[in-house]
Amino acid sequence: MSPDPALRQRTIALVGLMGVGKSTIGRKLAQALELPFQEADHEIEKAAGRSISEIFAERGEAEFRAGERRVIARMLDSGPHILATGGGAFMNAQTRALIKERAVSVWLKAELDVLVRRVGRKDTRPLLAGRDAREVLKTLMEERYPIYAEADIVVETDERPAGATVAAIIEGLGARVQVAQPLLSPCEAGGEDREAVRGASGVSELEARPLHHPADGPPPPLAGEEKCP
Q1: Where are the alpha helices (DSSP H) in the chain?
Q2: Residue-wise burial string across 42-72, b where 16 or more C-beta atoms lie within 10 A, e elsewhere
Q3: How many angstroms separate the Cα of 51 from the Cα of each of 10, 14, 40, 54, 82?
Q4: How far is it, in rounded angstroms, from Cα 148 to Cα 145?
Q5: What is the largest CA-CA distance in the chain?
Q6: Which fold has domain 5-180?
Q7: What are the respective helix, strand and coil percentages of the chain, to the nearest 5?
Q8: Where exactly are the structural domains of the chain?
Q9: How far is CA 187 from CA 25, 120, 149, 191, 205, in A?
């Protein structure tokens, strides 16, 4: 079954803490929506010619974040795709504004125990080097979760299979597209639907106006409403 074209119009940016599965989920989501997949950390390493750990060690986190912002800005100009961002990317106000302007953001959220278990499988994360993973992640959750909550869509990952998480993201995207669909104008709707659109547009059913019978033709325009041709 082909993916809904309406879900493929904008880049989908995955945000969340390390270990939440942005890369794994991102690749599966890209496959499901038939979109390219890009990983911000990989592009940063390619641009810098060194690993993320080396950038942190040699230049510090501040310079890494500045480079990350520039790389993500370039990636957001490259057409619709699935973008897996680094854990701290969405915390930068400028990067966050760019994502909000040019993409649909999805926060992949997980509980602390789940993240601790997952990050234990990979020892190349610079923020965890020589530190207790649980304490670091707990602190990061307190700092970052209120900002991650600004994402357009929130999906709980926890212990569910990757396929279920992808399905939840697609469901959230579909609901967002439906909400974003513009209502038909009263003239476009016509007849009985025209009355329904009036109600959907927030016009009170108790609005003072003469009663109208369908046999009399289209209802008269409301105050300030254009008359249909």
Answers
A1: 22-33, 40-48, 52-76, 93-102, 112-119, 133-148, 162-180, 186-189, 191-200
A2: ebbbeebeeebeebbeeeeeeebbeebbebb
A3: 29, 21, 12, 5, 22
A4: 5
A5: 80
A6: Rossmann fold (3.40.50)
A7: 55, 10, 35
A8: 5-180, 183-229
A9: 44, 60, 39, 9, 18
Rg of the chain taking only CA atoms, in angstroms = 24
Alpha-carbon distance of 137 to 206, in angstroms, equals 55
Q: How far is CA 31 from CA 14, 34, 38, 138, in A?
A: 15, 5, 12, 32
Structure-token pair, residue 195: 């009355």
Residue 183: pLDDT over 60: no
CB-based contact 90:147 (threshold 8 Å): yes
Residues 27, 1, 8, 165: is their CA dihedral positive or negative? negative
Which tens digit of pLDDT belongs to each residue from 131-151?
A: 888 999 999 999 999 999 999
Q: Which residue has the higher pLDDT, 147 or 220?
A: 147
> What's the Cα-to-Cα distance from 63 to each of 22, 60, 68, 122, rounded to whole Å?
23, 6, 8, 24
Among candidates 22, 44, 15, 18, which has minimal Cα distance to 129?
A: 18
Read off the amino acid at residue 92: N
